[in-house]
Design brief:
The protein is α+β, with helices and mostly antiparallel strands. It contains eleven helices and ten strands.
Amino acid sequence: MVLSSQPPTQSVGTEFIPGKLGKGKPLVKSSFKVVATVAFVFSACFYFVTRSPAGEEANGNQFVRNDRLEVATFAGGCFWCMEPPFEKLPGVIDAVSGYTGGFTENPTYEEVSNTETGHVEAVQVTYDPMKVSYDDLLDVFWRNIDPTDAGGQFVDRGSSYQSAIFYHNESQRRSAELSRDSLVATGRFDKPIVTPIRVASTFFRAEEYHQNYYKTHSLKYKYYRHRSGRDKFIDSVWGTPEWPYSFTLISLALLGIAAVSLFGYRWRRKRMLTEANLLSSKPVSKCELRQ
């Protein structure tokens, strides 16, 4: 008696590949496509969420300013470190580094840093209140500073690095005071919150080499920020990184899963082809099977 390697239910002219559901696609291939699609969508969303509107506006004026845009001003120590958290928020049009709160006109970086001009380093945020609220900006501000430090911020010491909220209208003042009181009520900080809430005064744009420093000098910026102690403090107080970075980790994890799925699919495909070649070989007798 001779055994045939062709399955009895297999019709002539139809390729038989083990692991397939009928004539459908392999289950692992379908799973890979789903994971790859999800990873692509997450990566695309991360790109559009975290890209800098300010950078696009500078390059091509793609954002049209209109009457509904509003301005908020915050001082959180080194303005290099305060631009990125705001610019990554959907609805924020621009975050400009500059000086405010002082008594001299058109101060320079050297004057603000080395003399008593009364100014502090600050960022002025232009945003669309229909897409991001002032309360959202306040939340980002509190999460990126040490509000208990009256002598500066982290490694940067001196009056020009003190934190402050500069309100432009009564609504902003009330929101700022409420957010401060709410933060105090949480008991998150062991020391008193000393960040003042002041009326906004003239804002002087800083020198161009300070604008978008985290982009134009990314290595120097990352080195400075790491050594400044800011991130270590933020992590110790809030326990989680800023949400865009969490989003990045999720995207990378999904891409990793997709890569593993692709590798698994190719391995299984090779195995199925090997099995198919064995099944398509010449008939085998019982005697041969016993050998």
